[in-house]
Amino acid sequence: MPPGTQPDFFAASTAAVADTDLRRKLENATGRHLDHVAATRAEFPAYEAERDASRRIKEDSIARLDELLVQLKERLEANGCSVFVAADAAEARKYVVDLARARSARRVAQGKSMATEEIALNAALADAGCEVVETDLGEYIVQLRGERPSHIITPAIHLSREDIGALFHEKLDVPYTAEPETLTAIARQRLREVFLSADMGVTGANFAIAETGTLVLVENEGNGRMSSTLPEIFVAVMGIEKVIASLADLSHFLEVLARTATGQKLTTYTNFISGPRRAGEADGPREVHVVMLDNGRSTMLADPVLREALYCLRCGACLNVCPIYRRVGGHAYGSVYPGPIGSIVSPSLFGGATAALPFASTLCGACREICPVKIDIPRILLHLRWKETVDRGETAKSEATLPAPVWPRAAERARSGVRRFSRMARHPLTARAMGLLAALAMWPFARRGYVRWMPPPFSNWTRVRDFPVPPLRRRRKIRARAPDASAQAGNRT
């Protein structure tokens, strides 16, 4: 890990792993997510076909991103929207803040949006004198706590209902309760005032359809619909990768997004926004502004491996299945985007300490298996690790005053160890003998089949989990079953 970045993630993750209460909450919440996803996918035979179709559409959209963005901008403007293309977060913030000042907006209803989190829009609006209120329940909770979201889809996944009850009692001056229905009713009452009095609404966008100039917001609570229709001024901040070619493409994504993200057949609200209210219409915003955000996405597009990360639908499923995320939570990553997807997009979007995040992975591949558009996240993680190692090596060569970076040396030791293991693995008898000797050495120190401490370098494992000792009788059992298996194979042929 490069110097200056290793302590940040590893210090935070070490503290998170030691927090058994946090781990329990994460395991419970992500486990429920995965159960719902598995059940919903099992009853939809066309799921894999829809995944393939969604990936093909994303591949095509990203391949001709420039063409589709031009078409989208033209169609949005023809529909009466104002469109601003922001090269980076600073330009996007400035446009929205200047708009709020020009329209004397004092209260801003913020619908759930990772893009606005990415550009730190809330803080910029607050500095400009605006009261910004998050209207998604999870976002509202973490805003009251002064935290950033811990998850892409469920921002307060790290909190229990008792935590939220105590928070509402402290911040909202209501009697303590841990009943979810009561807590939701309290938040609904407070947020209804915000929707009715907001001068400006801000959301992100799940999709943007170039053919029709339509923004699509997919959500469950109605905060996106309220934030985009009740205030006089509506602003959508969308990453440039959200564009797709046609309305017909959208149906494929709607089939896989909710099933993978929350285990639903379809989310409660699917909102289509094509422009401001027209003459004779009773509701809708008077002005619609669309901020197309680059902020490092063009750099990702230029990399033939990394560009696949732009296919992401922000469903959050890779977080739920990731063994790292499920033990440390989102805040340990130090990035707006945590988990596997955050580890591949954060270095391009934020740089700095987030360059270490590609190393925060076991490369188990579970994220690739659950992704609705089949992003090969492990391949991209390895690519980014290689780039970071090379970049650090080149920096050390060009700056003679700097000591040699720590991570390339560690990487070379790891490669050397893998080469030695590879040579041993070519000789099965040697590998089996080594495994047997290791098991014999560990069994005297085992308790219920696990060793709780091992010397370096294996201490990196036992520091956070017990090590399972291989059974000594496994080989004998395999031999005992072999003749039956052969006989069965002969009968089948």
Question: What does this molecule look like?
Answer:
The chain is of the alpha/beta class. The protein contains 22 helices and 12 strands. It starts with 5 loop residues before the first helix and ends with a helix.
Key traits:
493 residues, six-stranded parallel sheet, four-stranded mixed sheet, 12 strands, 54% helix, 10% strand, disordered N terminus
Tell me the quaternary state.
single chain
Categorize the overall geometry: globular
Strand order, sheet with most strands: 1-10-7-4-2-3
Distance between the termini: 53 Å
In short:
The chain is an alpha/beta fold. It is built from 22 helices and twelve strands.
Topology:
Layout: H1 6-18, H2 20-42, H3 47-63, H4 65-78, E1 82-86, H5 89-102, E2 107-110, H6 114-118, H7 121-127, E3 131-134, H8 137-145, H9 161-172, H10 180-197, E4 200-203, E5 207-209, E6 214-219, H11 223-229, E7 233-239, E8 243-244, H12 247-261, E9 269-273, E10 287-293, H13 297-302, H14 317-321, H15 325-328, H16 339-349, H17 366-370, H18 377-398, H19 406-425, H20 428-442, E11 450-451, H21 459-462, E12 467-468, H22 474-492
Parallel strand pairs: 1-10, 2-3, 2-4, 4-7, 5-8, 7-10
Antiparallel strand pairs: 5-6, 6-9, 11-12
